[in-house]
Amino acid sequence: MTQLEDLLAAWVPRQRWFAGKGLPVEALRIESAHTVLDRSDSGGPELRILVVAVSQRGETARYQVLLGLRPGTTLDADLAHAAMGVCAAPGRGSGPGSATVVAYDAAHDAELTSHLLARIAADDGAGPVGFRRIGGAPVRTGLRSIAMTAEQSNTTLVFGEEYVLKIFRRLWPGKNPDLELTTELAGSRHVAPAHGWIEAGVRADGAVPEQRGTGPAPAEGADPRPRPGPAVPTTLAMLQRYLRSATDGWVLAATSVRDLYGSPGAAPEEAGGDFSGEAARLGAATASVHRALARALPTDVLAPDDVRLLAAAMERRLDLAVVDVPELRPYAAPLRAAFQAFADLDDPLPVQRVHGDYHLGQVVRTDTGWILLDFEGEPAAPVEERRRLSSPLRDVAGMLRSFDYAARHQLIGHIDEEALAGPARAWAQLNRDAFSAGYEDSGGVAPEKHQVVLRAFEYDKAVYEVLYEARNRPAWLRVPLDSIAALAAG
Ligand SMILES: Nc1ncnc2c1ncn2[C@@H]1O[C@H](COP(=O)(O)OP(=O)(O)O)[C@@H](O)[C@H]1O
Ligand SMILES: O=P(O)(O)O[C@H]1O[C@H](CO)[C@@H](O[C@H]2O[C@H](CO)[C@@H](O)[C@H](O)[C@H]2O)[C@H](O)[C@H]1O
After folding, report:
1. Closest ligand 1 atom to the C-alpha of 361?
2. Integer angstrom CA distances of residue 183 from 119, 125, 231, 296, 384
3. Where is the segment annotated Disordered (predicted)?
């Protein structure tokens, strides 16, 4: 490993966006490095876009790192928190007398990120990294960026009060579904318009060389790891309009819950921060986006045999989750029964492109209504799976789970936990019902008429959440586990 790879091997696994938490890193390698800016000749900074391949449990995942390099051994105080460490200037030899640089996360360096915006504005598609602008409207440049501090799977930079640049961290070859669906939904009043993107060739893993079963025996000494396949044009970042008046749906819902918990004896619809009107409007916005997706992109109807395969995949995910999170084991039987009931329905299932990771943190309330964000799908799922057509009820189930999350998460460690369990249930039920009614009234299917399908999707999401929390926020593991326990009991 180079000195820089050593620094990255210590830094990458500590980042919020690193998806492989909890598993040892077997190897880390810089797979490609693209120079966006090089002022090193005059003692200035460099900006490089790195694709870093990280191997864990024999599988390779690729991550994007915006690498800043500055000469010397220290950074100014405003960048110190972004430092990875000191190394010999990469690519310029490491012998005596070679230059020493500080490597750091350039997402925090507004001087460097301004070049990303300028290149998108110039629609500069000439080099190995394509900077593309959407449509004829100019993109404003010269704006300073600030990295958002939200708990995120990616990194979002806010430029002035005009744009956000979402830097995709885990890279999957091809067009990112967030860019794909956001551009397909251009014109929807529930989606923030995209203004451009950045892309570069990223390798996918090819086939594993050795053949099992009937294939020819592997050559002696053959490397059993998957060989990198050809480079595929891959989205690295998306530029989108910044929604100035946006308030996170999660924050609004959590405020309403807090208000209820602070009003002993009040019913959720009577407490000052009643959220049910917003929940109904959110249901309507969701139905509107589902309709727009169905108009713009292919739809299909799954035959009962394919529905059974879907249910079997849910069971498989459960089996894997039980191995990683043994606390799930007591509920495995009722979860399995729900998936089986879905398989036994013997009904065709209409499918289309959907959001795929729908929850209150993916929607913001603006002065013009609810806006849906982040059409990337579940960050941990392979991209082919995330592009697959699915039932819109999957998104409905995701949001219903989120009402449950909003109601329960403040119970953890609350001194009145027992007394508040009832109000928490009532809050979740009121908002689940309001969302479902808004969804149906705006032309979506009636969720309550599809209980078996909905329950299977809700359980599947809850199993995903158990794994997500175990890996990312163990203190929250109780939230989905308690929901599963309650669902299983009812
Ligand atoms: N266009 C935007 N305008 C204002 N805030 C935004 C915008 N896009 C994202 N955000 C904020 O950033 C948060 C994270 O964005 P998201 O796209 O969900 O990133 P991630 O996939 O990393 O979770 C959102 O919950 C929202 O609060
Ligand atoms: O927003 P992301 O794409 O990063 O989604 C991941 O992280 C979410 C948490 O930030 C996680 O959502 C879970 O917690 C939310 C509250 O923080 C809650 O609203 C959701 O209902 C719950 O699923 C999401 O599952 C994960 O993919």
Report:
1. 25
2. 20, 18, 24, 10, 19
3. 207-231
Do 304 and 169 lie in one domain? The reply is no
Give the CA distances from residue 490 to residues 295, 485, 486, in Å, rounded to whole numbers and listed in that order: 37, 9, 6
Q: Which of 143-152, 177-186, 250-259 has the lowest mean pLDDT?
A: 143-152
Please give the full DSSP string across 36-79, using - where no structure is assigned: EEE-GGGT--EEEEEEEEEEETTEEEEEEEEEEEEESS---TTT
In short, whether 421's Cβ falls inside 6 Å of ligand 1 is no
Q: Are residues 60 and 124 in the same domain?
A: no
201 and 274 within one domain: no
- Residues 90, 128, single domain; the answer is no
147-171 tens-digit pLDDT = 998 778 899 999 999 999 999 999 9
**Buried/exposed code over 98-137 (b: 16+ C-beta within 10 A; e: otherwise):** eeebbbbbbbbbbbbbbebbbbbbeeeeeeebbbbbbeee
How many residues are given for the chain?
490
- CB distance 166 to ligand 1 below 6 Å: yes
Q: Atom 12 of ligand 2 has which residue's CA nearest to it?
A: 359
ipTM score assigned to the predicted complex? 0.97
Domain boundary among 105, 139, 162: 105
Structure tokens at 85: 């460490």
Shared domain for 304 and 438, answered yes or no, is: yes
Owner of token pair 């200035």: 44
